[in-house]
Amino acid sequence: MLPVRLDRADPRPLGSQLADQVRQLVLDGALARDDRMPASRRLAADLGVSRSVVEQAFDQLLAEGWLEARQGSGTWVAGGTSGRAAAPRRRRTPVVERPLVMLDAGTPWLDPRHQAVWRRAWREVSVATPPRGYDDPRGLPELRALLAERLGRTRGLAVDAERVRVTGGTGAGLRHLLAVLPRADVAVEDPGYRAAVATVGESGREVRDLPALAPVTDLAGCAAAYVTPAHQHPLGRVMPAGDRLTLLATARRADALVVEDDYDSEFRYDVAPVPALASLDRDRVAYLGTASKAILPSLRLGWSVVPDRLLDAYDAHRSLTHDAPPWAVQRALVTLLRDGYVDAVVRSARRVYAERAPRVVDALSPYAELAGPVAGMYSTWLLPHARAVRVRAAAEAAGFRVNLLRDYCRSARLSGLVVGFGGPTDDELERALDVLVGALGRL
Ligand SMILES: Cc1ncc(COP(=O)(O)O)c(C=O)c1O
């Protein structure tokens, strides 16, 4: 007899109760595929219900595919596993895996003061009045004013608030630009920022490979060139002044836009941050900034400065698509900027990175060659690919994630490891370096 029990006090119809319990028996493995179900007449008699109750349940389970009717031989179990379980299967307790400690290029240091600062920011958000309709698609005016002031002071980019746009981060800024650019190829540095490559691809355009360390002398047929001049991602180089001028002249000739991804330029500890490329030619360069490095990637906030000739189309697109970051997060960033927290955290993070970078360099330089200067929160090392793969596997087995340089390359034939040092604690970094050095030493 089937182990089911129907309850007449239950408000659910008896047929539904029976269907639910049979379904659960299949899921638990107590009924297995190719088990024969009792005849409806006999099951009805066993349960003390009318045959129509059983037929109603079977019809439901036949329709859902849990049972099947076989010509002339009754009803059989069709779903579930083959082979009956000895007892109903216990639900397995999910195994909670320890997350990997990220030694990647993108995870920044977390300021210990952040909780108190956030509490203040959210308290202000909680007493502010949200806009009744869709907010200004360009971003909160007070936030744009604070960003404009900071861009002038820290990036040499003299711009008024009217020209700053608040975005959902670098990726969103690029998407908005692509929406208003001609449908032509976009050149992206190779190796280069993988999210930009994916975003260009998703816009239906071809990605052209721009050798990351060579002067850009040809952009014919391109709508744009995507570059990271302050800190080439991931090789680390600052684009030399001569190459900057060549890039701008090439872009003018091809009537292509230069998209400047200025993701972590403030984190230099050897020299002062290099002024933004956009400060050399506001008509040719669209500037993309982000809160992901100086504050937190989970904020999903960034800012763009777009050449005037694209601004109307850019605003119209954002207004049409309602594609602006949430008001509350923008309002919180107002507090952080206004109270000087962003400046303070950049200063502190710079000190942390300045102390960590030489530890990483000292540990790894006996085994691998640096691909370029170390700045920001990561370093890139050249190694044969097979070795890099083995070192990465050893790191992963010990609970640390480092990235393969090959994953940033398209036609470029470079290999090695990208090792970040923003995300781990000091102790974690120490252990991670021991693991990396151990793995490199064994090769
Ligand atoms: C090269 C580069 N640009 C930009 C970003 C930040 O992107 P977003 O503002 O979308 O978080 C990152 C983050 O890792 C990056 O590596």
Break the fold down into its secondary structure elements and pairings.
Elements: H1 14-28, H2 40-47, H3 51-64, E1 67-70, E2 74-77, E3 101-102, H4 114-127, H5 141-155, E4 164-167, H6 170-180, E5 185-190, H7 194-202, E6 207-211, E7 222-227, H8 241-254, E8 257-261, E9 285-290, E10 302-305, H9 308-321, H10 327-338, H11 341-364, E11 369-370, E12 378-382, H12 385-397, E13 400-401, E14 403-404, E15 416-420, H13 426-442
Parallel strand pairs: 3-13, 5-6, 5-7, 7-8, 8-9
Antiparallel strand pairs: 1-2, 4-10, 9-10, 11-12, 12-15, 14-15
Pyridoxal-5'-phosphate binds next to helix 6.
Provide keyphrases for this structure.
443 residues, alpha/beta, Arc Repressor Mutant, subunit A, Aspartate Aminotransferase, domain 1, Aspartate Aminotransferase, domain 2, seven-stranded mixed β-sheet, 13 helices, 41% helix, 14% strand, binds pyridoxal-5'-phosphate
Please provide a written account of the structure:
The structure is a single chain. The chain is 41% helix and 14% strand. The chain folds into 3 domains: 14-77, Arc Repressor Mutant, subunit A (Orthogonal Bundle), CATH 1.10.10.10; 101-108 and 343-442, Alpha-Beta Complex (Aspartate Aminotransferase, domain 1); 114-341, Aspartate Aminotransferase, domain 2 (3-Layer(aba) Sandwich). It has helices at residues 14-28, 40-47, 51-64, 114-127, 141-155, 170-180, 194-202, 241-254, 308-321, 327-338, 341-364, 385-397, 426-442, and strands at residues 67-70, 74-77, 101-102, 164-167, 185-190, 207-211, 222-227, 257-261, 285-290, 302-305, 369-370, 378-382, 400-401, 403-404, 416-420. By secondary structure, it is of the alpha/beta class. Strands 4-10-9-8-7-5-6 form a 7-stranded mixed sheet, with helices on both faces. Strands 11-12-15-14 form a 4-stranded antiparallel sheet. A two-stranded antiparallel ribbon has the order 1-2. Helix 6 (170-180) runs parallel beside helix 7 (194-202) and helix 11 packs parallel to helix 13 (426-442). Bound molecules: pyridoxal-5'-phosphate. Pyridoxal-5'-phosphate binds next to helix 6.
